[in-house]
Amino acid sequence: MVYDRIKQQMMDTLPFVRLLGIRIDEIGSGTSKVSMPEDPKLNNHLGTQHAGALFTLAETASGAAMAGGFADLILGLPGLLAWQAMEGWHFHARGRTSDQNERA
Length: 104
Known about the structure:
Blueprint: H1 2-13, H2 15-19, E1 23-28, E2 31-36, H3 51-69, H4 71-74, E3 97-101
């Protein structure tokens, strides 16, 4: 299926995502679910998950959702780069963390 091909292409071309252990669990038409394992190496000095790791998790989810939304067109295109992003953190992340994006 096209979503599996997009998922594989993303995992093959995103080495930092692989380094953090992030998995793209699902991709749909404008939706995604991603996860990151609990790993003390990904924690900050407070023992919670580092904001850089969490931002990468969120960025991976948004990229996968965007790719899913353009599934018919995305597979032959060169890589796309987000030039601006803003996140608001509302809690300290502990344990296994996940994120998902859906079209508004």
